[in-house]
Amino acid sequence: MTWSPILLDVIRAVLIFAAVMTLVPFLVLAERRISAWIQNRVGPNRVGPMGTLQPLADVIKLVFKEEIVPARADRVLYSLGPLLSFAPAAIAFAAIPVGRGLQVVDMSVGVLFVITATSLAVYGISFGGWASNNKFSLLGGLRSSAQIISYEIAMGLALISVIMTTGSVSLSQISEGQTSFLCWNIFRQPIAFVIFFTAAFAENNRLPFDLPECESELVGGYHTEYSGMKFGMYFLAEYVAMIVMSAMVVTLFLGAWSPGFALPEGLLGTVISVGVFSFKLFAVLFFYIWVRWTLPRFRYDQLMHLGWKSLVPLAMANIVVTGIVVTIWDAVQ
Amino acid sequence: MPDIKTEEMLLNMGPQHPSTHGVFRVVIRTDGEMVLESESHIGYLHRCFEKVAENNTYIQVVPYTDRMDYLCAMANNLGYAQTVEKLMKLEVPERAQYIRVIVTELNRIASHLLAFGTYGMDIGAITPFLYAFRDREMILKIFEKLCGQRLNYSYVRVGGVTFDITEEILADIQRFCDYFEPDTIKEYNELLSYNGIFISRTAKVGVLPADLALSYGVTGPSLRGSGVKRDLRKDEPYSIYDRFEFDIPVGTGEMGALGDCWDRYMVRVLEMTESVKIIRQALADIPAGDFCDKKAFRGVKPPKGEVYHKIEGARGEVGFYIVSDGTTKPYRVKARGPSFCNISVLDALTSRGDCMVADMVAIIGSLDIVMGEVDR
Amino acid sequence: MSFSDSIFWVFATTAVVPAFLILFTRSIVRMAFLLLGSLAGFAGLYLQLNAAFLGFTQVMVYIGGILILFLFGVMLTQRSDIPVREKVGPALAVPGFFAGLLLMAALLFIALQNPWKTHPPVPVTEPDTPVIGIKLLSTYILPFEAVSILLLAAMVGATYIARVQAPGAPDGQAELSDSNAEGRLE
Q: What is the pTM of this model?
């Protein structure tokens, strides 16, 4: 192995990472503006034109805040928590094709990689919640570990039926397979789409599944004790994870970077594909925000019921049906 | 078979907690997410209202009553003023009676709006809170025009009200009623009341049976949520409430069990409609004339004696017991606050072993307490 | 040392050092964290051997599933970092010492006797995932099904344990353990 391909990989990785990181502040701003719009408020509009510099102000504030480590906290794990939460989410984006042929790594097991990486985010929350030496944080950590493993199973099962339909675990191949409008997996696997999207909300701890942090019961959940940039990291991780999950929804179900018809060859097609992907990504993210500011929150046991008694059996039934249909389809062809 | 034991944990909710609606502390013993037992601690906001009242003249006590239930100050003012008037056997001018009814009902709506909004917030929906505040703001603007205050009005005084209500304000109130009912309440119901997640969070949670409620002295919407049709405005009409047509909404148990959190919540939403009904009738009938008894405004000196009087506040029965020794200062004032009695039932509701940490919040919210009045 | 060699040493260190550190750690949650590092190191080694499917499955099952259940259990049963080690009397320490010595000798013997085959990682010509899938459902169908049955039995058993409760115990607790049991299947 020579060094030059590695260098190229690094450049690509940095580019995608930078793109995602730049997206986060604007997503936060969008969340605040959209929530304000939903709630008949004005929202942040003072810093910069139309409030566009508000994220910058937020970050500056976070950086200069004092970092407080609670008494008798486990200092090592307390500091590692935010990092463990952020890193997997950031890594996961590497396997997602953001446009035709635009991907940091084209892995043969891309789906598995993204799901694995997002499932690691639970550690940041659990360790952070435990290390804070705060009972509310501990409860938040507990909730998140139970919630994330539960919904991961539903999510994995939903994915299996998608993989069965597409016949590949490579994200680039799954994207290629959805170039024509009717081949989008949302039409081929509508049930899997619903299950996956629901589980994605739970994985990201977004309302109506934001039990690990829910401010009305657990004050701030796992990040109750965090302040300054450590809190900022959790915050960042949450939004990066949200972007990753939305990108997964787009890639797996909404036709990835395809506008629904064949793209022209060459650079033009690639640029259009990136545009299409971004548009879909923003649409899904808007949906995320919309749901958050509309719905109340589930209770812990209801969340478990929904996960284990509705989503998992439904996903299993979906696998069986998919299996039968795929076999018949193959036999007919 | 070995019993897998999980360690019990003592969790201190409050005194600084976002969902205790004030400075209130509950110590809960939890096993994982289940609440095994809870114990409420109150008194963080104690301000010696009753003792302070003994050192002030009858008129000076009025602002202290504002600060009890600060979300429904008009009802406290009214309760106190009427008690003193009963002691003095003072007849209040007709116009003042109507104004009192209008402002008390408006304040009841404002208070229920806040209960609605914060309850949504407790359950995790943030948007209803801001919708409720948007509409509550209209009422507060009206009150500001009326008496220059947004929270602690001291508007209803012994002998009448402080200022006369102008035509402009009456028009404002009329406009608010038209805006609020039925459209806005319908919007609330669509947004929150009949939301599936909201129902699953509140139905069959914190069931308060009627006999338990009565034995703890629970009153107001929390009692009516249990299906008991008791409202002082109808049962023992004070002021001029016997002149108006309105219903007493009670819990029906339509979403689960009778007396659950949803019933208590829904009673409040329905009561807002009824209050609008009362206001509309009062606006139509309000007579011209004096808005106060000028003599009472110059000084109050009731004869020797004692009296108890109660009215229906936004949270239940607001009662005052006053002993007079014939001077300008009351010898003893005892207040019966609805929140104080309602909160006493909390431990009974949450210590039955079927309550989760999240339900704790739902139950506290559904009782709609104001700590300022619990501690006084 | 080539690039891939250095990567190997990074993964190998990540796999072995935390495993040693676990022995000297007092807090269970920290142990879990170290175990996380160790398992991740092994996953890295798989990845370096071009066994991507195996590597990610390792992370997903061991780190994403089993270890988090450990943590869950620890957090639920043990509030603060109570030292897990207690004073051990000679009745336990002496046989323990010899048992440990014996085990170490056995392991060393096996490690030194085994003719380790060393060759560079097999280059991947086709995606390994379909191959693994087909192998699992043809050549290795029997072990695969045996494991399935074992897991099913474990699940039923765990559900049973969770269901047996003191009268009047809250229902939600059953749900909790229930989900635990099924989580193990992952």
A: 0.81
